[in-house]
Amino acid sequence: MEKVVIIGTGCAGLTAAIYAARSNLSPLVLTGTMPGGLLTTTSIVENYPGFPDGIDGYELMVRMQQQAEKFGARIKILQAVESVDFSKQPFSLVIDGEKVEAQTVIIATGAGHRHLGLPSEHILEKKGVTYCATCDGAWPMFRNQPLVVVGGGDSACEEATYLTRFASEVYLVHRRDSLRASKIMAERTLANPKIKPIWDTAVTEIFDPAQDKVTGVGLKNLKTGEEKVLPCAGVFIAIGHVPNTQLFQGILDMDENGYVIPKRGTETSVPGVFVAGDCSDHVYRQAITAAGLGCAAAIDAERYLAALNQ
Ligand code: NAP
Fold this sequence. Notes:
By secondary structure, this protein is of the alpha/beta class. The chain has two domains: 2-112 and 241-308, FAD/NAD(P)-binding domain; 115-237, 3-Layer(bba) Sandwich (FAD/NAD(P)-binding domain), CATH 3.50.50.60. It has helices at 11-22, 57-70, 119-123, 133-136, 154-163, 183-190, 287-308, and strands spanning 2-7, 28-30, 44-45, 55-56, 74-76, 81-85, 91-95, 98-107, 111-113, 129-130, 146-150, 169-173, 195-198, 201-207, 216-221, 227-231, 234-237, 241-243, 273-275. Strand 15 and strand 16 form a beta hairpin. The longest helix has 22 residues, at 287-308. The chain is elongated, with a radius of gyration of 21 Å. The model has no long low-confidence stretch (mean pLDDT 95).
């Protein structure tokens, strides 16, 4: 039987793994389909304390994994949980077809990219529509072409800035007339001569599924109602995230957007099941806050185990 199973290996999961491993709990850690979490798709992380010159997101996650493994965390790459039964102790989880029992579970499943919800968006995904500039921006089909980034937050600004390396110009399409991004990021983005903001505008269509590639976007000005088509070779969607908590629907208390609601500290509505990071935090959503919550979850799990095994 496992003492601690940690689901997810973003900043929250891996920090929980470091702490649980250092407490001799030998945690079983499941990466799911995205080892390292969303930070592995970021280019440079400039606000993680201890790295005054910034650090590559992928490298930061590799280092966290090494640190967890050094202390005895057992990290299972690409293993995912199929179902859970939290109705009694020990909990049971089905992991890639195999039943595993656990006394505590730390959920650190993070969040995935939000979609616009257009049928053409899905048809053209990976054919010019993407959710990650650092993963896909260097594709030959985007070189010296006009590109569109959708969104007004830090991600959209970061993606737009990154894409100026390849694109002839980058159109930043945002539904309001001011950016949500942090001041420094917004100023840097708007000062970039290759980035052209298009305010108060929604993307209503992505062309052209019939050609199996992106040739442009349909835009609608939300104040004037004016519609037009903007030719482009790629659409990068950066409109926020949705928590990866579908597995726990009906089992744990969640808000209307699917964020797990912690009851006390990191404890969920089921004693012995803890939560950390972007799957429960829609307020701060930073690498460092996720890491902090991962630490707290491991400490909470350790205290729960001490009481359980008294
Ligand atoms: P975000 O801050 O939630 O911003 C999402 C943006 O998408 C907002 O501008 C929002 O518009 C827009 N949006 C949402 N739904 C939309 C829809 N259906 N259609 C069109 N537009 C839509 O998300 P994020 O930029 O991914 O950032 C998430 C968190 O990570 C934030 O806390 C951010 O600070 C952090 N982050 C930090 C860094 C960094 O520091 N290096 C980099 C990336 C992200 P409204 O503004 O109108 O709501």
